[in-house]
Amino acid sequence: MSGTYKTKQNGPFYELDHRRQKAVMLLFEDELTDEEIAKSVQRSRFTLNNWKHDELFRAAQKQYQSLVVKIDYQSKAVKKLKELLDAKSEMVQLQSATTILKMAGMLSDNDTPELTQAKVRKANADARVAEARAKALEDNGADVEVLIDKMLTTIEHKDSEENAN
User: What is the reported pLDDT for 2?
Assistant: First the structure.
């Protein structure tokens, strides 16, 4: 593997020795048998099997897979998703848009198109209610102003009574 895969020099993969790292890479490539991989890293198949059950080794496999996919495929996948935004099928367009928004952290995995539409409808309804309240306050502004003046006068009156005593 090239040096491109060493972009993130920390984590479980980089905690492994060279032989285990090589085993992780060969297991990911999935072109050799376990026997051939063990021979390639100068260990027995039994040792390789033990490594495969080790927690750190398994975490290293996940990290390596993530690094390779990110480096080799992420930009291609995003480009393809962008192309699919212009697909003929509205469903494909929606799925593409949803995936892009999920990748950007703007949607959770639990969101569905129906749930998203419901959230939009709720937000629109909330906005209409807020506008109606603002308009009602604006229309009845004089009444509210009179009420506030009365309250302030009452408070001032009670204040002056308490200060007189």
Answer: 47
